Amino acid sequence: TELSVERRFVPESCPRTVRPGDFVRYHYLGAFPDGTRFDSSYDRGSTFNVFVGKGQLIAGMDEALVGMCVNERRFVKIPPKLAYGSEGVPGVIPPNAVLHFDVLLIDLWNSEDDVQVQTYFKPEKCSRTVQVSDFVRYHYNGTFLDGTLFDSSHNRMRTYDTYVGIGWLIPGMDQGLLGMCVGEKRIITIPPFLAYGEEGDGKEIPGQASLVFDVVLLDLHNPKDGIVIENQVVPESCERRSQTGDFLRYHYNGTLLDGTLFDSSYSRNRTYDTYVGKGYVIAGMDEGLLGVCTGEKRRIIIPPHLGYGEEGRGNIPGSAVLVFDIHVVDFHNPSDSVSITVNHRPSNCTVLSKKGDYLKYHYNASLLDGTLLDSTHSLGKTYNIVLGSGQVVVGMDMGLQDMCVGERRTVVIPPHLGYGEDGVEGEVPGSAVLVFDIELLELVSGLPEGYMFVWNGEVSPNLFEEIDHNHDGEVLLEEFSEYIKAQVDSGKGKLAPGFDFEKIVKNMFTNQDRDGNGKVTAEEFKLKDQEAKEEHDEL
């Protein structure tokens, strides 16, 4: 005669129970006391949807549903006076029938509900939150109130990308995403009138369904955003900052806003080398690399419209904000020449180095960032060259000009006057600016340009006869070599310093052996000034 309610299952978590005026969705089995079934929502494949306490149900069910939790199961016995009474329902419910209902509550909401947001993780650093008209990328699991999964971006392995607050989303999601930080995780519960309403979405989501979205925000930007630069390390000494047209070498780590690494020059153990402001890199990086110093470290945050856009690239998803942590190793301009800084010059500095001089010097070679490449000090011996003879890179030939013994200078050589784009494998990186700290220790004056041997006094008028030791009218290489050596040893002649004696002598002999037969005759033999005079006469 009285209503009987047996709570057969009550979930551990029950944040809310049914109250009069609430709208519920539930499944049920309806049977008579003998077990005969008269109705079932399961057979129809849809829940029973109704307001509670508004007379839309039989009185016993209106009362039995109050206090239920979502996912709670109740066994309800309803007497006739709280069911269909003495009249029953013709053809279905006989008069004065006691009704048994096995009820499972699926959903619960009220017309006064709003979106509920529960943040269960928020990063310590949150410099920006979602605002209306922002574009966001997020992952989500979408369930009903009973926990049934209806959709998941994780299963598709692709974020959901959309504008917020301009009608691209259901109203409840538009509202629930506002104020989120990148990396934040929150649960957004949306009543149906702020979701898909009475009709549902026609596919997975039934009408009048409350929706629960477990969301993690991965990315956030606004179409009006420019790049953001965060300076991390700026050297105290910064004599020059990069400009449009400069060529930069830098290391970087590239991540998404959520910290996911997508690329790193460090992993390749090679800098990224490029011109700046010329369109060789994405627009945001072109802008972010301007105004940097050598040795500077900065973070460049680039919105997708200045990055890889809606399509993305490789393992960079579409519409992704990019974060580059860069370290500038060096930069130069193709118009740069050698830079010379004199650190010490002796008071007695009258003899200056020139092309053809033989120089002995010590050096430390490094990159612009201070990385040591090479040092003659560590080898314990000087580096010896003939200046201007191509024995060193062009920039070093230029940097050693007009130097006196005892002078110390720093020579900065751009790559186009150094080792170029290729560098020296395993020793000098490609396109590297080089810094040489030099001390000149010895200078042997060279000969005039074009000469490998000169006389220190008057030239004998019978020079050929003196060289032709056996007076057979022909000079062989051995005779020629012995004669030149004797003149050098006696101080009467001088060879160009820094070159191999035998190679010089052989070169001189070959120049005199005009018919190439390995012998020089008196007719072939001519001094250099005689050769020049004959050429002038011919002209």
Automatic annotation (TrEMBL):
Transmembrane segments: none annotated. Its EC number is 5.2.1.8. One of its GO terms (molecular function) is calcium ion binding. Residues 512-539 are annotated as: Disordered. It is an enzyme of class 5 (isomerase). Its main location: endoplasmic reticulum. It is found in: Endoplasmic reticulum. Signal peptide: none annotated. Residues 455-490, 500-535 form the EF-hand domain. Gene3D superfamilies: 3.10.50.40, EF-hand. PPIases accelerate the folding of proteins during protein synthesis. This is peptidylprolyl isomerase. It comes from Formicarius rufipectus.
